[in-house]
């Protein structure tokens, strides 16, 4: 198999067959991100087909394929469609094909493109929306607004393509986390994510945000403030979705189905907020070396 650098995939894709089609990120401007060091490139179709032949031998009964890279669904349809067709031909048992996609990628796709994706089995796309709080999205240079999230997710809904969200607690900075959670809940309530995976922003020295902190342009939120942010988000969500804070970046791990498990999740967060020591949580954060 052809893999370049570190391969990132969500925890819920652990059982998926991984197929490299792109390396790096086309956007590569988010201030907090240092995951994708390699410049963006597209794998040759011949290389993709060689990897599919290998999957035929060693993973012939794969039911889901995860396309690797920061946003493989952002490439042109003339490149993407043959890849999706090749997957379906090589692995006939595959029920769905997923990967990361940016809101900006979706904005450049037509409704006909999305309909073709659905026909070829694209489903369960993961979107790093990070927040529904426009000031945070703007400062971090995410490249989309809260309104964009709603608009593009409704297009996915219309096409019959499911999706998952990543939410980044602490992204708003010190003193603004509750505000960000409230805005995000309002935004997300207009969408239908199957899963909301919460990550807690961790500052790595090779990110642009590290320099922002050093030069006083950004003040990181404390750990207890982040927990209160997650609590506010859970309290404000009115949609049916599975919420999880089980990532290595999260200091407190809770998960459950909303709205059914809301009371249990809120109680667990309240216990943590009332009993956890800020310094102990900060020590945990400092020990996180990689996402």
UniProtKB/TrEMBL annotation:
Give the Gene Ontology MF terms in alphabetical order.
catalytic activity; iron-sulfur cluster binding; metal ion binding
- Where do the Radical SAM core domain residues begin and end? 11-240
SMART domains per the UniProt record, alphabetical: Elp3
Q: Which InterPro entries match?
A: Aldolase_TIM, BchE-like, Elp3/MiaA/NifB-like_rSAM, rSAM, rSAM_sf
Asked whether the UniProt record includes Repressor among its keywords, one would answer: no
Q: Which SUPFAM superfamilies match?
A: Radical SAM enzymes
Identify the keywords attached in UniProt to this record, alphabetized.
Answer: Iron, Iron-sulfur, Metal-binding, S-adenosyl-L-methionine
Per its UniProt record, what PROSITE patterns does this chain match?
A: RADICAL_SAM
Write down the Gene3D superfamilies for this protein, in alphabetical order: Aldolase class I
| UniProt cofactor(s) | [4Fe-4S] cluster
Name the PANTHER family on file: ANAEROBIC MAGNESIUM-PROTOPORPHYRIN IX MONOMETHYL ESTER CYCLASE-RELATED, RADICAL SAM SUPERFAMILY PROTEIN
Q: What is this protein called?
A: Radical SAM protein
